[in-house]
Amino acid sequence: MLIDAVSYSLDIGSPNEENMQQSDDHQPAKQSADEEDVDVEKMFIDGRVQRLLKNLIGMDIDKIYSDRVVSSVERKHYALMTDDMITHIRTKMMRRGERFQQFVPVKEPRSSIPTVLANEEGWMDSTTQSMCSLTLLLMPQAGTESSWFVSEWDLEKCNA
Questions:
Q1: Mind listing the pLDDT tens digit for each residue in 22-55?
Q2: What is the domain range of residue 122?
Q3: Which InterPro entries does this UniProt record tie to the protein (predicted)?
């Protein structure tokens, strides 16, 4: 299980263990067989987990600021700088690069069970001229965070 593997790798320590001190508000992860007992979001936001992930991927400034294809073309900027200005710009670029590499929090997957928003009786079906019921559902859309509405006719009541 991924959660147990991350917890285990944090508990065994690393060469930089003195740098990974436990914060006051840190709650150790529960070690249980159920995934529902573990708060994945809280564990992922933990500073030790974030440091471990940053150490795994590294930080290559040349790769972060390398040339890449973009939709809009911008002019290159050249400037004459002193050594102090260069070190200031490099530290500023390092902070900006760390912000680019910050990991997004883990979100639990959405439920595939539709939520009934409304269930109304007394709608007239124009083809059969009979009364029907209309159910308005909130359905999760696969692959995106957005949802869409589906209206569904109760055909059994229409044909009765």
A1: 444 445 544 545 555 777 778 877 888 888 888 8
A2: 115-159
A3: Ribosomal_mS22 (IPR019374)
